Amino acid sequence: MKRALLGFAVVGWIVLLGQAAYGGVTAVAAPSTQTVPINGTAATLNGSGSYATNPPVPITQWSWDFESDGTYDYTETTLGGGDGIAYKVYDKGGIFTVTLKATDSISRYDTDTQEVKVRLAVSSGELTGKSVQLLWENANNSAQFTRYEVHKSTTQGFTPDANSLVTNITTMATTSYTVTGLTPKTTYYLQVVLVVSGGSIQSNELQRATGG
Predict the structure, then answer these.
(1) Are 64 and 49 within one domain?
(2) pLDDT in tens, 22-66
(3) C-alpha to C-alpha distance for 176 and 102, rounded to whole angstroms
(4) Model confidence, pTM
(5) What's the CATH code of the domain at 197?
């Protein structure tokens, strides 16, 4: 009886610690971070680099939680022709931690995370010699939204800061703003930064030349 109990304890220890000490599944979510526009280009969530060791059996299932809310939103399997790559178009702006769960053919699994930043897509409306109207989509993310920041510069590729700040907008439903007081016949570069609870995301940079 003592030998049987000892054997069970040893086997149990191997099972519990086997993934760390004797191999297991390593989930690999790539790329580690990426930025995409709201309702635009899909984020590419690549888990095909996940692998298993000891024994080196295949990964047969990949599941993604697109917003790390505890719910796996999409699952694919090798049986269903899955290749470990998923695509997600986000309909709201913000910073999202995506969780990948990779499972092998003997039901071992591991998780990994990657960051997706979803930015505003800015375009222009009316343009005059002294003003330009900026347009963008509603961030649609009350859980994260803090404010929009409108920035302008005469330098291409500028980094938004206190000197380039035109105004702060704290109403999420606001989706346009007219920048006034511009100099005629001048090229301006404009951005709308989305500030959320986890940080900030720069929009595309819009180039517009005022009339005269």
Answers:
(1) yes
(2) 469 999 999 999 999 999 999 999 999 999 999 999 999 999 999
(3) 42
(4) 0.84
(5) 2.60.40.10
